[in-house]
Amino acid sequence: MPGISNEIREYVRKYIMSRSPGMYILLGRVIMKELGTDPAEAVIKKPRQLLEVLRNFYGDDMEAVFIFRSLFLKPLALLAGNPDLEEELYRASMWGCRPLIEVLGSNGVKIDSSVCED
Q1: Residue 29 belongs to a domain with what CATH number?
Q2: Cα gap 5→19, rounded to integer Å
Q3: Taking burial as the number of CB atoms within 10 A of a residue's CB, which of 1, 17, 19, 92 is the most buried?
């Protein structure tokens, strides 16, 4: 069944763990409880819902957006080989999973849209 490759999941997970291991563990529990998936998959499968979970968790929109972009979208931009892609990924993610996957796909990171849950 098509989905998010282990390579992509592991890249995102390792990126977050290398920056803030405690945060990955803490947010992982919250995200799993709220969205039923781990953080490395939630950013792709349910990007808008993930941002909403972060907003509720932090109680501050600016902090939630900063965490969403720097810990969740940045590794996807780096995986695509373009650190400057973060802004475009952010804009696409506000429309949901499919637009996010389209941007990633046009930058060489192929993910089947059947993974989308939003």
Answers
A1: 1.10.1200
A2: 22
A3: 92
Cβ–Cβ < 8 Å for 98, 46: no
pTM of the predicted protein model: 0.91
**Number of domains present in the structure of the chain:** 1
The three-state secondary structure class of 18 is helix
Domain that holds residue 104: 6-115
Please give the backbone phi and psi of residue 26, each rounded to the nearest 5 degrees, phi first.
Answer: -65, -50
